[in-house]
Amino acid sequence: MAYKTGEIRIPDPPRGGASLTVTSETFRDGETIPRECAFDGCGGDNRSPQLAWSGAPAETKSFAVTCFDPDAPTGSGFWHWLLFNVPASVTSVPAGEPSPSGSTSGRNDYGKSGYGGPCPPPGDGPHRYVFTVYALDVPAIEGIDANVGGAALVFNMRGHVLAQGTLTGRYGR
User: Fold this and answer.
1) In the beta sheet, which residues pair with residue 171?
2) How far is CA 98 from CA 94, 127, 130, 155, in A?
3) Using one digit for the tens of pLDDT, what is the confidence trace for 16-46?
4) Residue ranges per domain, the chain?
5) Which fold has domain 15-171?
6) Which parts of the sequence are annotated with region: Disordered (predicted)?
7) How, if at all, do strands 104-105 and 127-136 pair?
């Protein structure tokens, strides 16, 4: 299978092609992410945006949420937020609360647990920040813990994704 440069993908597509609707009160799809959500090292407050999702299949047992910058000049993108084992009863994350009760935060590419906001290099132009919510058929992803990085999280979700949806924001400085 051929992939486009910067394309976000998971090893196995959602079973049955189901999709989730992902929205935010903080920003709209394709629009600029507010400065308060930017990384604190880039003049922001590192405040995670509000996210909500709907349309999960009835057999959903948990969710995972990621934020990925495919435009980062790393050769492999940059993971800004990894949240998993989110209980199936949770369908939103409030602004500024990047880890709902019962969920686990993984290690972002800043090397920290939790949300790490946008911080593209100066002069790089706006980057895309792709927030993806995955509906999973397991209550917890086996074999990973809070030290997991983005690639390992996505790999371990393989075969368990029932549906997914994305919301993309932009940020430049």
Assistant:
1) 127
2) 7, 21, 16, 22
3) 678 999 999 999 999 999 999 999 989 999 9
4) 15-171
5) Phosphatidylethanolamine-binding Protein (3.90.280)
6) 1-20, 92-121
7) unpaired
Distance CA 86, CA 101 (A): 8
Q: Is 112 exposed, middle or buried (0-12, 13-18, 19+ CB in 10 A)?
A: exposed
Q: Are strands 18-19 and 161-171 parallel, antiparallel or unpaired?
A: parallel
At 98-127, the pLDDT tens digits run: 899 999 999 999 999 999 999 999 999 999
Closest CA to 170 of 27, 45, 24: 27
Q: Give the torsion through C-alpha atoms of 173, 106, 111, 164, to 10 deg.
A: -30
